[in-house]
Amino acid sequence: MLSKRITRVSEWIIERFIQIAGILGIVLVLVIFFFLLRNALPMFHERTIAEVLTGTRWSPTHGEGHFGMAPLILGSLYVTAGALALSIPLGLATAIFIAEIAPRRVREILKPMVEMLAAIPSVVFGFIGMTIVGPWIAANFDAIQVGQFAALGSLMLCFMALPTIVSICEDAFHNVPREIFNSSLALGATRWQTIRGAVIPAARSGVIAAFLLGLGRAIGETMTVLMVTGNAQVMPEGLEGFIRPVRTMTATIAAEMGETPHGSLHFHSLFTIGLILFVITFSVNTIADIIIRRSEKDIA
Amino acid sequence: MQPKLTNSDCHDAREDTEYAEQPKEDFLRRSSADAGTRVARGDVSHDVKIQTNDLDIYYDSCHAIKEVSAEIREHEITALIGPSGCGKSTFLRALNRMNDEIPEARTTGQVLLEGEDIYREGTDLVALRRRVGQVFQQPNPFPMSVYRNVIYGPRLQRRVARQEADEIVERSLRGAALWDEVKDQLHKSAMDLSGGQQQRLCIARCLAVESEVLLMDEPCSALDPTATFRIEELMLELKQKMAIVIVTHNMYQASRVSDRTGFFLLGELVEFGRTTQIFEDPHDDRTDAYVRGRFG
Description:
The complex is a heterodimer of chains A (300) and B (296).
Chain A: H1 2-40, H2 43-46, H3 49-54, E1 58-59, E2 66-67, H4 70-101, H5 104-116, H6 122-140, H7 150-175, H8 178-186, H9 191-202, H10 204-220, H11 223-228, H12 249-256, H13 265-299
Helix pairs in contact in A: 1-13, 4-7, 4-10, 5-7, 6-7, 7-10, 8-9, 10-13, 12-13
Chain B: H1 4-19, H2 27-33, E1 48-59, E2 62-73, E3 77-81, H3 88-94, E4 105-113, E5 116-117, H4 125-131, E6 132-135, H5 146-157, H6 162-175, H7 179-182, H8 195-208, E7 213-217, H9 225-238, E8 243-247, H10 251-257, E9 260-265, E10 268-274, H11 275-280, H12 285-291
Parallel strand pairs in B: 3-8, 3-9, 6-7, 7-8
Antiparallel strand pairs in B: 1-2, 1-4, 4-5, 9-10
Helix pairs in contact in B: 1-2, 5-6, 5-8, 6-8, 8-9
């Protein structure tokens, strides 16, 4: 009788604990969002939204302060776009190799190894980029004068986004029913025709979700880009922008927050950058989530 | 491979028991005399679509198919029955070399498709699999539109002009008795069809590449009785144009639709003959026990 009651009580406690843990996640996201919003809004008492988003000059401590975020937003876009341009084909090819081509033993070694890339701290990538890769490129290519530029950030981010892309793509390919692969072969398709014509379309939602999560990873990355992209708050222009120094949104916050008086316009402007980043990554992750959900329905 | 003498002994012995009551099929004896040697095209009556001679299949050290010799005939439905794991699906996959996709599988012996050994070196697997189509246990349309599912096979080989593609799709879907149900949703996802419709779509995919033989691996085990009935009806219609081999757990299905039945047990083709004979007058005690439902 007593033991029954104890069981019932402990059931109740465990249930509530799990419930609270679940709710806490949602609450935290909301709290962070409102915290960002509260600290970002005062910015717009003194500057218009258009001024901030399209202004091309970022120099907060110069005179009254110039808070044009276009160079930073574009800097982030350049670095991220470059990272995706490198990591999507590489990640897709790796995932196809692991899921469909590699013999089982190779697969069992390769997948954990690629996932291990995610365990390397970002500062290590930054360090390698700054001390080895950057100087080597600057020494060997005439077009690049300084060993710190946007595309170097892309290259480093590519390695960091790769585990996410490979892992999720590989899962998506793996979840394509074997019968789909076999029935394509049984219709006289070659392996490659099967992968291109049946497996990738069947896994497409997972693949797109992988790209989006890779994008989220790349755009939010701070330390590496701070170390290798040169920290120059200039507007990147055309293709040349990739081989010139830039400054991303994340790097700006990391570099400037420490020296900003609390409550100043500069302080609020950094929160505005944070809010923009939050909205971007939140949207990207939400879209990825919706797509993954749809893919689960598709396969079932 | 084992010594040839043992093989042909086994082969002849089996054939004597199987076909003792069917002397009219004397060409069987002729082909058995040729067992183990290459049979040139035209040597076998065209009535026989596929013939296997002393087919052995191993998965690593497991001997999954043991010296199976059987004939699949044009315009007939051949049913393969037997308990789970008896090798009937393995045998089926040997007929379009889908076992090649299983790294551990090793095959010896002959499978003659119209007299040509499909296991000889230099066989064009792509062409073979178009001639010998396969329908799987789980209905498995590609996650794309009905139309693109059907045209998938033809488009692997060549560019198909729009008008010709339309014709192929209509002809194949009509052939699979699916046209009337899907003609208004050709460009909707095939995943929205019912299980039975999906399975008929998979048959239509084979028809689109003009398969001559249709291998069906328990095609109805995931379907309800109505859908099963429609597939069986369709099979009877399709055999006018092709040879059909069906692996089934359902003995009623085998007796309903098939002309010939093979009973597999532990990798051995215990008995192979006309369906009526297998079910009403089996010669082997093991077949007798199985078709009476005493095991399996």
